Amino acid sequence: SPIMEELITFHDHAFMAMSLISLLVLYALLSTLTTKLTNTNITDAQEMETIWTILPAIILILIALPSLRILYLTDEVNDPSFTIKSIGHQWYWTYEYTDYGGLIFNSYMLPPLFLNPGDLRLLEVDNRVVLPIEAPVRMMITSQDVLHSWTIPTLGLKTDAVPGRLNQTVFTA
């Protein structure tokens, strides 16, 4: 999904900044430990202290701005094609396609005896949710009894299902 591509790009951006900072600190430590020459004038260098203060602030801003952009992109609601209501129960999920005459079905996990070779244990279900491609879908997620987590990792989605609260997420597959 486009959101997952943005998350991967942000991860690469933040990892590159973190790697460069780590290498700079490692170089400074190694050069301090291995050199015999010391400069006593650096203890009173106000310019160096100013740089040490401003540079981390700039780096934090360069990491925070893309992060905030992605945060707002994930909360954006753009006229979804249809809505699916998902209700978490103790051992199953109930899905309701509200825009299509209230189509309701339960999705139970398959017991290990019914798994085919290559199926993933605790992830295979008897009735899967069918989602359209390249159409915005709104998921309304809640729970009936305990906390649940509704997630599709490849789309970059994870929304908690909380009893008494209706959470919403919009995505495009």
Automatic annotation (TrEMBL):
GO terms for cellular component: mitochondrial inner membrane. It is a multi-pass membrane protein. Its cofactor is Cu cation. GO terms for biological process: ATP synthesis coupled electron transport. PROSITE patterns: COX2_CUA (PS50857), COX2_TM (PS50999). Residues 79-173 form the Cytochrome oxidase subunit II copper A binding domain. SUPFAM superfamilies: Cupredoxins, Cytochrome c oxidase subunit II-like, transmembrane region. One of its GO terms (molecular function) is cytochrome-c oxidase activity. Binds a copper A center. It catalyses: 4 Fe(II)-[cytochrome c] + O2 + 8 H(+)(in) = 4 Fe(III)-[cytochrome c] + 2 H2O + 4 H(+)(out). It is found in: Mitochondrion inner membrane. Component of the cytochrome c oxidase, the last enzyme in the mitochondrial electron transport chain which drives oxidative phosphorylation. The respiratory chain contains 3 multisubunit complexes succinate dehydrogenase (complex II, CII), ubiquinol-cytochrome c oxidoreductase (cytochrome b-c1 complex, complex III, CIII) and cytochrome c oxidase (complex IV, CIV), that cooperate to transfer electrons derived from NADH and succinate to molecular oxygen, creating an electrochemical gradient over the inner membrane that drives transmembrane transport and the ATP synthase. Belongs to the cytochrome c oxidase subunit 2 family. This is Cytochrome c oxidase subunit 2.
